[in-house]
Amino acid sequence: MSKCGRKKYIKTNLRQMTMETIESQQDGSVTDSVAESESAHMQTQTGQNSIPTLAQVSVAGSGTGRGSPAVTLVQLPSGQTVHVQGVIQTPQPSVIQSPQIQTVQVATIAETDESAESEGVIDSHKRREILSRRPSYRKILNELSSDVPGVPKIEEEKSEEEGTPPNIATMAVPTSIYQTSTGQYTATGDMPTYQIRAPTTALPQGVVMAASPGSLHSPQQLAEEATRKRELRLMKNREAAKECRRRKKEYVKCLESRVAVLEVQNKKLIEELETLKDICSPKTD
DNA sequence: ATACGAGTCCGTCATCCCCA
DNA sequence: TGGGGATGACGGACTCGTAT
């Protein structure tokens, strides 16, 4: 797998691994979390052992610097020891309220990874066939939140903005986009400038021409109409993608917050259990 | 200084899925 | 059932930290 392809693979599995983290994090053991993810991933990647096995675990304490790799040996339940390369994902400074919790993304390198990587890149269509679409993260979160009270649902835009939890930092989303005389779209705020490939027919956001199909005569007009529709669709999709990513970030923050809460709960329960054990156990001396 | 790896962001395409 | 919004997946550009 190419460098970029592997990177995408890691990104692709982030959500899945996050869910596994939540399921397994009550144990509190890094090794077990990795092992569970390992086995789960092996099931989903049958026949594709050239793809690195991935896991995401939550660890307490500080990690290394941003983007700095760390190599760890992890023992699986089967007794097999794997090399784990971990990279600290530094959260936004104002995002995580519990500084002890950091998300670590780990990738175990399967033995056949090197050889498979040298075989070349699968074309994108084949990859699309291999990588089946997973359920929407919004759906997952909503299912989660229906099970567990206290987990906010990702709802429609309005309620989401109004009901943002106080510990989650909202991101600035620029909305003012206009067309310059050169066909260049510029956004106010922090969005970078970008260019439309065929600016001749591009329209500002929200502008819909009232050209009905019956009013089009020449093939040129039809082509222009098609181009215009395409530009409009691309523009809408561009904005939708931005919004989608913003919501996804919020979703990830929500999961991270939930992990932090559950870890605290788990710790308290363990302490409580120890206390009760001390009370109930007969004194030996 | 520079090469390199890893992470992030963005635009686009393909597909899912809801609603009129 | 078609249209359109939502989102997974992909690839490219860019940034940043580290090693040399």
UniProtKB/TrEMBL annotation:
<dbReference type="Pfam" id="PF00170">
    <property type="entry name" value="bZIP_1"/>
</dbReference>
<keyword id="KW-0010">Activator</keyword>
<dbReference type="GO" id="GO:1990589">
    <property type="term" value="C:ATF4-CREB1 transcription factor complex"/>
</dbReference>
<dbReference type="Pfam" id="PF02173">
    <property type="entry name" value="pKID"/>
</dbReference>
<feature type="region of interest" description="Disordered">
    <location>
        <begin position="23"/>
        <end position="52"/>
    </location>
</feature>
<feature type="domain" description="KID">
    <location>
        <begin position="104"/>
        <end position="163"/>
    </location>
</feature>
<keyword id="KW-0805">Transcription regulation</keyword>
<protein>
    <recommendedName>
        <fullName>cAMP-responsive element modulator</fullName>
    </recommendedName>
</protein>
<keyword id="KW-0678">Repressor</keyword>
<dbReference type="GO" id="GO:0000978">
    <property type="term" value="F:RNA polymerase II cis-regulatory region sequence-specific DNA binding"/>
</dbReference>
<dbReference type="InterPro" id="IPR001630">
    <property type="entry name" value="Leuzip_CREB"/>
</dbReference>
<keyword id="KW-0238">DNA-binding</keyword>
<comment type="similarity">
    <text>Belongs to the bZIP family.</text>
</comment>
<dbReference type="InterPro" id="IPR003102">
    <property type="entry name" value="CREB1-like_pKID"/>
</dbReference>
<keyword id="KW-0804">Transcription</keyword>
<keyword id="KW-0539">Nucleus</keyword>
<keyword id="KW-0597">Phosphoprotein</keyword>
<dbReference type="GO" id="GO:0000981">
    <property type="term" value="F:DNA-binding transcription factor activity, RNA polymerase II-specific"/>
</dbReference>
<feature type="coiled-coil region">
    <location>
        <begin position="252"/>
        <end position="279"/>
    </location>
</feature>
<feature type="domain" description="BZIP">
    <location>
        <begin position="227"/>
        <end position="278"/>
    </location>
</feature>
<keyword id="KW-0175">Coiled coil</keyword>
<dbReference type="InterPro" id="IPR046347">
    <property type="entry name" value="bZIP_sf"/>
</dbReference>
<dbReference type="InterPro" id="IPR004827">
    <property type="entry name" value="bZIP"/>
</dbReference>
